[in-house]
Amino acid sequence: MSDSDLIKILASILAQSAPLMLAITGETITERVGVINLSIDGSMLISAMTGFVVALNAGQALTAAGIPGDTLPILAGFAAAALIGALAALLVAWGSIRLKQDQVAVGFVLTLLLADMANFLGQNFTHIPGPSVAHTPIPILKDIPILGPLFFDHDLLIYSTLLIVASAWWWLYRTQPGLQLRGVGERPQSAFVRGVPVNRLRYLYTAVGGALVGLSGAAFSLDIKLGWSDNHILGIGWIALAIVIFGGWHPVRGAAGALLFGLTKYIATVLQQSFPQVPVVLFNALQWLLMMGVLLMVGSDISKRLVSIAPEALQGPLSRMLRVAPPEGLGQAFLED
Amino acid sequence: MNTRTFLQKIWPSVPILLAALVITLLLLIVSDNSPLVTYEALWTGSFGSADRTLSTLAFWVPLLLCSTGLLVTFTAGLWNIGVEGQMVMGAIGASWIALRLSAANPAIPGWIIIPVELLTAMGLGALWAALAAVLKIRGGVHEIFGGVALNSLAIIFTNYLISGPWQPPEGGSFRGTQPFPQQALLPLLDPSRFSPLSLGLALLALLAVVLTLRGTHWGLRLKALGKNLRGAFILGVSSEREAILAMMFCGALAGLAGSVRVLSWFDSLRQSISGGIGFLAILIVLLAGMRPLWSLFIALVFSALLNGGTIVQLRTQLHSSLSGIIQGTLVLFVLLFGDFDRLFGPNQPQSEVMEVADE
């Protein structure tokens, strides 16, 4: 394998992981402010369907009106998907904050319901070709050796995803509102006493996170896994939820988790080609084994034991890297009065 | 209870039912279908004839078994999402005995084979549930995530068996194993796929669970565990042991449900053996708010929707997910606006999904 092949493979893993990164970043923001949006698996399905159908219809309508081109329809599709994702997330937040109901129960029922709705409403749009995000290499930058093909030879969705992950990190850790956001998730009482509108911020950031989850759904149907079919991307949302934990509720670590996941899937595909005698279905099991594996890593003392074998100088940084703790106020409604 | 207080109690559920009805109506209209034709097909498909009624009953049994098991895990404060996979593993267990033992030894009579099948199914279901419980307790993997992963793994395992070692001799098909021998199947009420024996077992299981939760020490310990983990610990209830046992109990009943599916509804192991029955059972228990008699009734309504949905699909070409939407909307509305306190109690701390066993 030549160097350029390797770079091509890494670039494609990056592109394939982008939708998952969006969902992880969204859920990370939502959970950071203290709300568990367990509905994202169904939410991604219905926004994937919505994004595709809206882009398809907008494309036909605009072409009929004499305005050809994919850009506007695609943007409409992404906007609709973001809206659906935000609405689903707001429903969970509203159920918890206003109606004082269990976030887990509402989120779980919602994920089943939204998946059914996606399949129902999308039934006439399965397996048909539609618009897709255009490949847009960035001039000049794409010619930088190694970095060019790796980062600047993709489409706008991939660039935006990387920007969104970076901005989420910057917002959470480098700005005053980000500090407030984290404060609301960790110690809602103290934040409230200091005059932070806890529940208003929870609504706001849950909606923002949900919109990103919605974008992630459309990123599949309009870019990475084109089109729509029954249960098009069922299960990916659960993987995203697990990687949020694995990433320790940190957007950059979450994105790294998504890349790791993409890499493992790539390796599995290669292995599958090299060992045709191993049943294909067993490779399908891999992502779920991986999901349990990473949760075990952060959840049990396995990681501690692994760290203790490492050279002593490395133990400190390693255990800091592996230690994760959820925001303390996660999943609990906050009574403002 | 006089009529007035009864009406007062029932009142809050009326707008909820109406809202669920309106939402499905809107969906039907948006998707360009006649609501009247759909609802009529739903009714004739579920209770329209003796034949259809019996197949509604055939759906009722696995729903009842799973929701009965979930009564136990919910009492212990556990989210056994893995019930779906436990059911699939039960189906695999029963199929294993039917294909390997019964087909090879046709001389063994049904009254020996069937109990062995059912027990194997319960054992495998319990084992799969124990795995989720151990992952939670020893590994810090929340049972929701463990359950989701184990569900998928069980389905992948089924597909592997069907397309690999248990492939029918004529080969090729990815749909199911060869039919089991006659003596390995549950006795059916002709000409339906309904097994009265399985309904008897399900009702017996429900009765046993109601009595256990109400009147035994174990029931009390489970309640203590569900209400407050720390309190239960102080009182000397070993939370680990109770949690594993509760999960295994539910897994055994789910496994039994899976065996009923392969040994009566189907006659072989199929790709989609559960078809979401496990998830539906979770909705039933949430909707019933932990009241066993309600779950009995709601399970019947849901099995009618499930069974009627197949006829709706045949007649109107509507997608089969319609029943799921009706059920999901109903449960969501009850959760949001109904009295959910009865499920977890007012002092129950909210589920800590993201509990990570650090420190």
Order of secondary-structure elements of chain B = HHHHHHHHHHHHHHH
Low-confidence parts of chain A? none
Q: How many separate helices of chain A?
A: 15
Approximate shape of chain A: globular
Distance between the termini of chain A: 64 Å
Cα separation of the termini of chain B: 52 Å
Percent of residues in β-strands of chain A: under 5%
Oligomer: heterodimer
Structural class of chain A: mainly alpha
Mean pLDDT of chain A: 90
| Beta-strand share of residues of chain B | under 5%
**Residue-averaged pLDDT of chain B, rounded?**
84
| Largest sheet report of chain B | none
Helix and strand element order of chain A: HHHHHHHHHHHHHHH
Concise structural overview:
The complex is a heterodimer of chains A (337) and B (359). Chain A is mostly helical and 337 residues long.
How are the SSEs ordered, and which strands pair?
The complex is a heterodimer of chains A (337) and B (359).
Chain A: H1 3-32, H2 40-64, H3 71-97, H4 103-121, H5 147-151, H6 156-174, H7 176-186, H8 188-193, H9 198-224, H10 236-246, H11 251-274, H12 280-284, H13 286-299, H14 302-309, H15 312-322
Helix pairs in contact in A: 1-6, 1-9, 1-10, 1-11, 2-3, 2-4, 2-9, 2-10, 3-4, 3-9, 6-7, 10-11, 10-13, 14-15
Chain B: H1 3-10, H2 13-30, H3 35-47, H4 50-75, H5 83-102, H6 110-139, H7 143-163, H8 196-215, H9 217-227, H10 229-234, H11 239-265, H12 277-288, H13 292-316, H14 321-337, H15 341-344
Helix pairs in contact in B: 2-14, 3-4, 3-13, 4-8, 4-9, 4-11, 4-12, 4-13, 5-6, 5-7, 5-11, 5-12, 6-7, 6-11, 8-9, 9-11, 12-13, 12-14, 13-14
